[in-house]
Amino acid sequence: MSPARLTVPKTYKLYIGGKFPRSESGRVYEVTSRKGTFMANVAKASRKDARDAVLAARAAVSGWSGATGYNRGQVLYRIAELLDGRRAQFSAEIARAEGVSAAAADAQVDEAIDLWVWYAGWADKYVQVAGNANPVSGPFFNLSTPEPTGVVAVVAPQGAGQGSGSLLGFVRAVAPALVSGNTAVVIPNEQAPLSALSLAEVLATSDVPAGVVNILSGSAAEIAPWLAGHADVNAVDLLGAGELEWVDLQIAAAETLKRVSPPESGPDAGAPSVERITFFTETKTVWHTKGLL
Amino acid sequence: MDITAASGTAIAPAARAVEVIGTDLTERSLRRYLEGIAGVDAVGLEARAAGLGTRSIKKESKAWALDKVISLIDLTTLEGADTPGKVRSLAAKAKVPDANDLSTPQVAAVCVYGDMVPYAVTALGAAHAGARSDGGGVNVAAVATAFPSGRASRSVKLADTVDAVAAGADEIDMVIDRGAFLSGRYGQVFDEIVAVKEACKRVDGSYAHLKVILETGELSTYDNVRRASWLAILAGGDFIKTSTGKVSPAATLPVTLSMLEVVRDWHRLTGEQVGVKPAGGIRTSKDAIKYLVTVAETVGEEWLQPHLFRFGASSLLNDVLLQRQKLATGHYSGSSYVTID
């Protein structure tokens, strides 16, 4: 009989600017399964990691928002392709972390994959839906189109075994912000961050440019205020911040006129919608003279 | 050029060199002196520099350090695309680095190409150090001597310098002839620095401050950096400066440390204070503070003054301003809250 093999436990790290650094603070915290057994050590982000993540996200804005909608759609679709190839890993992680059945975990992964495909499709279509030609009393074409707002800080849905699940909740929170060309700094589910951090590995090996998605595992209550107050963040999605002092976050965000999307709860939190895409956009209006021939 | 034939040639009798090497000042005696300088322990130097970079600077010290960094900056624009307008906006930023916080100190100097000096002087106006008698104000520094390559004849380099001084430059940043230095023609490099120093003389008999750029990125070894530092100081340089910013690597902490050690040794030997200016590649407050620590630990805190230590930088100022705003407001600031370079 062969000797028993030692397990190789994995330490999950942050995802900032396309790299997987440890927290600048050196801190980690233990993540346990729903039943309370040890699953992994996970890096616990500090405010300086949040600052670095915003820098990385800011640097990625021009490239990502400058890509054509068609190209962004292809890149987001690629995430779905790669996620599909690793469904077994995600399924197992979800089942342990959330204490759900294998079938329920499979269903969650499937829905997450389909959601990437759904949002990918919108990348080159939402402008036609949200933009329009305005009637004006003069010899001008007047067009309004949505443009990405820039860096979006996202608090993904929290809690193990609640809401739509740790992977699906994360994708619901992040995908719509990316569609229009925003970049995101995301605080994943604090109790069940593993599927989000595994998704980072998918993002890193797909065609998503470095810095477009940055993931800060750790205490949402600790990091969110720094992101809400950060002057270089353009919008805050408080989707999963219902248990935090989110009114304070709104007040901090108002200081620099950020767009703030309020918390939602229940299994329908962050349900797919075009409104979640257009919320993180600014309207650009152009006037163009008409020919007078 | 045949080095052996030239080695008996007398070189310019610069006061410092005469004092240290003796009155028999020739290419040969200069070479013997420079090559007699002990080599640099490269591993030890890098370890020391890395160690100095690990200091943790806490809040009050950080606030002090940020203001100190600003007051030591040579705000620089050295682009082929520079215009009088660009220089004017640079001067405006030098005077008032952060319009939202008037307690922000002014920078030490603006550093421009020679032909831009008149615009810088005019734009600084009453804030120009030359227009004040209290010792405050912003200096105008000009790069000269066929910056950045230094590939021009001696007469062109001197004319370049005279021009900039006549236009009102308070400081001249010259480049050494790296080709000559690396070929061992130390006398030629030495004579050139002496000649440029003389060209810095104003009509009233005073001298513009002379900074000697060694372009350490092209000198290959720490031994060469040390030797070139001694050479520049012996020839009469008021400052030794790491780089033009046009060659990579530009300023690094170990290179600056080795130059500071020469300055320290020179001070012990003669009691004279020579300045150091790292330039190029210093973009973050964090890096700049490492340099402050290195200066304080190597030559002493008294060197942290504009006439003895400078940062040659353009984007550094914005990063320092962002950190300053963070300390003032308690939340992180963003690049939309400082001016575009």
* Overall CATH architecture of chain B: Alpha-Beta Barrel
Structural class of chain B: alpha/beta
* Uncertain stretches of 5 or more adjacent residues of chain B: 1-5
CATH superfamily descriptor of chain A: Aldehyde Dehydrogenase, Chain A, domain 1
Following the backbone from N to C, one meets helices and strands of chain A in this order, namely: EEEHHHHHEEEHEHEHEHEHE
CATH class of chain B: Alpha Beta
Can you give the mean pLDDT of chain A?
A: 94
Main beta sheet of chain B: 8 strands, parallel
Structural class of chain A: alpha/beta
DSSP strand count of chain B = 8
Strand content of chain B: 5-15%
| Rg of chain B computed from alpha carbons, rounded to a whole number of angstroms | 20 Å
Regions with little confidence, pLDDT below 50 for 5+ residues of chain A? none
Mean pLDDT reading of chain B = 93
Based on the structure given, which CATH architecture of chain A is correct?
3-Layer(aba) Sandwich
What does it look like?
By secondary structure, chain A is of the alpha/beta class. Chain A has a single domain (13-289), classed as Aldehyde Dehydrogenase, Chain A, domain 1 (3-Layer(aba) Sandwich), CATH 3.40.605. Chain A is 43% helix and 18% strand. Chain A has ten helices and eleven strands. Chain A has helices spanning 47-66, 69-85, 87-98, 102-122, 126-130, 166-179, 194-205, 220-229, 246-254, 274-278, and strands at residues 11-12, 28-32, 38-43, 132-133, 140-148, 151-155, 183-187, 213-215, 235-237, 259-261, 281-289. In chain A, strand 9, helix 9 (246-254) and strand 10 (259-261) form a beta-alpha-beta unit. Chain A is globular and about 90 Å long. Chain B starts with a helix and ends in a 12-residue tail after the last helix. Chain B contains 14 helices and eight strands. Chain B is 45% helix and 10% strand. Chain B is α/β, with parallel strands linked by helices and 341 residues long. An eight-stranded parallel β-sheet of chain B has the order 7-6-5-4-3-2-1-8. Chain B has helices at 3-6, 15-21, 27-35, 42-52, 59-71, 84-95, 117-124, 154-166, 178-182, 186-199, 222-234, 253-270, 285-298, 316-329, and strands spanning 73-76, 109-113, 139-143, 171-175, 209-213, 239-241, 275-277, 311-313. In chain B, helix 11 links the parallel strand 5 and strand 6. Chain B has a single domain, classed as Alpha-Beta Barrel (TIM Barrel), CATH 3.20.20.70. The A-B interface holds A 51, 54, 58, 226, 229-233, 252, 255 and B 325, 330-337.
